[in-house]
User: Fold these one by one.
Assistant:
Number 1:
Amino acid sequence: MNRIDLLASLASDSNILLDVGCDHAYTVITACKNYNVKKAIASDIAEGPLEVAKANIIKSGLEDRIKTIKSDGLKQVEDDFDTLIISGMGGLLIKDILESSIDKIKNKKLILSPNRDYYDVRLFLTNNGFQIIDEYAFYDKSIFYEAIVAIPGEMNITEFEIKYGPILLKKKDEDFINYYQKQYDKFNKALKNIKKIEEKDNLELLIADYRKILN
Ligand SMILES: C[S@@+](CC[C@H](N)C(=O)[O-])C[C@H]1O[C@@H](n2cnc3c(N)ncnc32)[C@H](O)[C@@H]1O
């Protein structure tokens, strides 16, 4: 399963799916075509991606079920929705987008797939009344991604789980283990050439984390 297909499948059976930062709109198109999503909103901050999205939606014949909106995050989104996807951006940007529209995302299902800064996204969820119900770690075209599914609720979560994913740490899927094995090998090699004590200490802490994941 490729990244877009996995993200679309996580929105299965939604009534109205909102994709913020939709770019090409492939995720909402796949969700409506293959995963029983009734309607969708494809939004993006930039005109260029939205034009591409509109053309792809028309090409797919789904213009009666998918609407496009130009919006910075959710700020200009007035429509209701039950599921929100934000993917393919840094975790800090995803966190900022969620934080600045906190009232609009309460009671929604969130599907978040940052390409870095996973910690910041999980910390936001922990501190804002969301519960992580599923997680995926995977490679698509040699790039490592994570996807987090969250719903309103409480969770007991440790600092280590916020860093590396409470469900990922339980599942220990092949791609997750491969990613941290590579990080472990890379950082162990790098350690030999580092002279500064502080840098060395930080790297050793990370290596200890990775050893814990791999054990
Ligand atoms: C790398 S693309 C990811 C596209 C798609 N979500 C995916 O996962 O393949 C990032 C998209 O997010 C849009 N974007 C960046 N900041 C945004 C914001 N604050 N609000 C809405 N869209 C934003 C960009 O214009 C771009 O189209």
Number 2:
Amino acid sequence: MKIDNCVNLDDLRVLAKRRVPKLVYDYIEGGVDDEGGLRRNEEAFRRRSLVPRYMVDVSAPDRSVALFGRTWSSPYGIAPTGGIGYFRRGGDAMLWRAARDANIPFVMSIVATAPMEEMAREAPEHGWYQLSAAKDRSISEDMIRRAADLGIPALVVTVDAPVDSNKERNRRNGLGGRLTLATKLDALRRPLWLKDYIRHGPAMLENWRAYAPAGSNARQVDEFVAGQRPTGLTWADIERFRALWPRTLVLKGVLRPDDALRAAEVGADGLIVSNHGARQLDRAPSPLDVLPALDAAVGDRVALMMDGGVRRGADVLIALASGAKFVFVGRPTLYGAVAGGAAGAARAVDILRDEIEKVMAQIGCPSLDRLGPEFLHRDPEDAARNVRL
Ligand SMILES: Cc1cc2nc3c(=O)[nH]c(=O)nc-3n(C[C@H](O)[C@H](O)[C@H](O)COP(=O)(O)O)c2cc1C
């Protein structure tokens, strides 16, 4: 299968899976513990349906959204994902360029494999930066200053990873320790990926280079980063980050109304309701399921966004109808870049855009500000269980 023949995001996943060793695929696709959270995130969307309104002029659907003082061409962005250079060399830049060209935001992970300076140069209006606190807070504060000096428009602070999570696929594959023989043999079956890895070596977590001991190689920087956890992040840190950061501040990983309210109180501009793509607490609820409660709690005081399990344009519309102002995708765009490089990253972005436009027309929604809970249908089983939509 070629990139051009991929008709949906799952095709990109299948193609990506063929390109990289199992170790890499499992790292991207995997969840934690029993991976119940992974299933829950996607099923939350499937339990909901959209009730179409007909006889509405939908000849020119407007999928643009105003958020943080800017109009974006689509209601979704690319979530921060770390280690991209291990999956596809140069993948970070492929994704921020795809985002820039489509006029949507790209969030660079703190464990990106490209420097924030390069992103700020190439995508000054579309590249945001994601921060997880470091044990040594002077590093976090320096990163915030760097991002501020570069003019990066938004800082996304991830709050949902207090300890390293239990990614059992990685442990079985021997990632982070001794690779198993099966893992090594499997890598031999992916010659393209292997050739690149042998030629260039492990990818560098570029944003950390300045803080690790001088002259550290990629592995030593990895070790340094590992030593910066757990971080002990508290609200006092968020207040400090707020004081240091001059522009839009977003907290990522909030799932409770009381935390959402507190975020508004300390001056956050936005929240990404998220369970980290089911990669931290396996028993966390799906973000879509808790979204209405957070919406009821904070209303317009902060911009509510969400991520986790979005695989179709219809999912994006369901999230918006459930109270989100904006949506992010993590794995799908990664798979695009892994499967087809720059063209694959752009393809993932385009697939979602086209699906959104089609479904907007199908449900009689000419612009996204018209979307609300009246478009949502409650699954009878959910109604019986009294699940709140
Ligand atoms: C491979 C991978 C790496 C990730 N790295 C980060 C990260 O460095 N920081 C972060 O806040 N979230 C990270 N996430 C979580 C994503 O930002 C996002 O919350 C999640 O992928 C959304 O779910 P989805 O993959 O179902 O779209 C990562 C996700 C994946 C799949």
